Amino acid sequence: GDSVTQKQGQVTLSEDDFLFINCTYSTTTYPTLFWYVQYPGQGPQLLLKVTTANNKGISRGFEATYDKGTTSFHLQKASVQESDSAVYFCALVVGGRALIFGTGTTVSVSP
Amino acid sequence: DAGVTQTPRHEVAEKGQTIILKCEPVSGHNDLFWYRQTKIQGLELLSYFRSKSLMEDGGAFKDRFKAEMLNSSFSTLKIQPTEPKDSAVYLCASSLSGTAISNERLFFGHGTKLSVL
Q: Which of A45, B10, B13, B107 has CA 20 to 30 A from B76's CA?
C-alpha cells in the first residue's frame, strides 16, 4: 500500500544552523506531497505542499523539494530559529483518500 | 474563526471502560478525519468521512473503535472497551474539500489526550 517513511526521529540544532529532514514514499500512482508542522500543545498544521508538477514548495523560509527518481522529498531551512522547534511530518495524498503521515521528526533548536 | 473543537482535552479511563470523544469541525467543511497520534507510530488514520459518509476506516482499529458523524457539525469517536495500549492523543481534523482530490489542507483540533490505566 501507499506509505511514507521518516527515519530521523530527532534533530537537535543551534540557532542559525541548517535544517534538513528527509522523507521517502511508496505509491503506485502520482502523489501530492506535504509537510505539516506541530507546535507544542497544538494539532499539526500545513506548512508546505509539493506537487509532482512543480517539484518544489516554499513557505515561511522553508523549502521542500521532491525527487521522483529516488521517491524522496525533503524539507530544508537555511537558518533555523528557536521558534522552529516543533515536530515535522511528511505526508502524501493519492486520489480521494485521506492523508498518510510519516512518524514525525522532532526538531529542537537551542538559542 | 472557530477552528476544530475537541472535547475533552484530557481523559483518564480504567481498562474496560467505554469512552466517547467529541469533535466539532470547522463550519462548512465537508471532510472529517480522526487520527491517533503516538510517538512510535506517528499519525494513524482511524476514520475519514465525506459529507457524513464513511470513506475510509483504519483497518487495524475496526474492532473496538467506532466513529460516527451525527450531523455535519458533530462527530464522536467511541472506544469500547478501552485497553492500556489505547493511551495516545486522538486528533480530529476537517477540510473544505468538495472535490475528489482536495483532501489537502487539514485543520486539526488540539487533540484529546487519553490515558488508560
A: A45
For chain B, the C-alpha Rg in angstroms (whole number) is: 13
Question: Are residues A46 and B56, on separate chains, in Cβ contact within 8 Å?
Answer: no
> What are the distances in angstroms from CA A39 to CA A12, A105, A109, B75?
16, 12, 13, 25
Facing B103 at nearest CB: one of A6, A36, A99: A99
Per residue in A25-79, pLDDT (tens digit) is 998 887 888 999 999 989 999 998 887 666 778 888 999 988 888 888 899 999 9
A102 near B CB under 8 A: yes
Residue A93 has which C-alpha cell?
495524498
Measured CA to CA in angstroms, residue B79 lies from A22, B17, B52, B66 at distances of 35, 8, 19, 7
Number of helices (H), then strands (E), in chain B: 0, 11
